[in-house]
Amino acid sequence: MTTVIAFILMFGILVFIHEWGHMIFAKRAGMLVREFAIGFGPKVFSFTKNETLYTIRLIPAGGYVRVAGEDPEIIELKPGHHIGLEFNQAGKVNKIIVNNKSKHPNARVIEVEHVDLDHQLIIKGYEIDEENELLSFDVDEKAFFIMDEKETQIAPYNRQFASKTTGQRAMQLFAGPMMNFLLAIVIFIILGIIQGVPVDEARMGQIQPNTPAEEAGLQPNDEVIQIEDQSVSTWEEFTSIVRDNPGQEMELVILRNGNEEVITIVPNEKESVNQKGEPISIGQIGVYQATEKSILGTLQYGFIQTYDITKLVLTNLMMLITGQVSLDMLSGPVGIYDATDQVVQTGFMNLLLWTAMLSVNLGIVNLVPLPALDGGRLLFIGIEAIRGKPVPPEKEGIFHFVGFALLMLLMIVVTWNDIQRLFL
Q1: Global pTM?
Q2: Please, are residues 145 and 99 in contact by the beta-carbon 8 Å criterion?
Q3: Residue 146 within any structural domain of the chain
Q4: What is the residue range of 288's domain?
Q5: CA 225, CA 396: separation in Å to the nearest integer?
Q6: pLDDT, tens digit, for every residue of 204-230?
Q7: Which residues contact 232 (CB under 8 A, 6 or more apart)?
Q8: For 387, phi and psi rounded to 5 degrees?
């Protein structure tokens, strides 16, 4: 149950911060944000505030921000339609009743002759059963359609996605991944504040009990300067040598209280997999890296760790594209849940670290120029900036539709791989 709660909270935070970025920059640009959703499918919970419908939906597989103009408007009025109009105190139309007009006895029913809710905000028409001149009604910019007793706010062109500059639209799309990177930076800074920042040198922190490190007599603050005939100056060099020598006796030269000492250690063998998914054995001795606390070091740690993980994810992504890494290595929601279960058992700090890593992954994946992702939409805005005019909406729509179908197919394959790894 702890894992379920941790997974839901972690997933909710990652999706919320991503979609919050999209929403905030959409509103800053003056776009009408129709819906802010966590999850997909049927609504579980919803409320409306400041023009936006906030929803939690049943299927926890992501989220979305629906901005006016990104999709065709649901309701379109045409000449000949009979509609009801209700007015505000300023005399402007504030409710356009599309059907069930009998439920609104105070509405003024007209037959539409002309309507422009994008620019002029005007409706022209004739009252039903009366022969008189053409009537013209000004429409409030925040008027609502009422269809099947459900209200939907109109979206004048200046509130639509397409009306904004290239830079504003690009920023609105980029804001989601950007917030994921910022979240990772903040989490790493928090970890630095709580745990301290790992030092660069190969200096010992906590020594785990009943491990080769304890048996060999290693102590906190011991610094390894040499292994066999190879000098060691960083923690990465030290751990790399240990990993590459499982079960092999090694002679370590350490600095302890300013004096050099020599100890012998034999790393335990642990089963793991390499980047190609092949089983391998690695060495472990049971030590943690030493840490230190400083304000500047903690701030730097947040940015450096986010940069290092970003570089690692991009490297692995390129290896996947070039075929150096198998598709079987990808994990979907099932695999992430299983990994979260293992991380939860190691403590809250490791769960924070795992959340930061997933946040970076989410940011990078969404920037990949694939259909239906933020990166794919940014690609079209880039093409528009180069061409000087947008790609026809119907062509872009086909591109995203096909891409979304392929992404769903990939998700099914990845989920099946996860299930095979866990149960078969």
Answers
A1: 0.82
A2: no
A3: yes
A4: 198-292
A5: 58
A6: 999 999 999 999 999 999 999 999 989
A7: 202, 224, 225, 226, 238, 241
A8: -75, -25
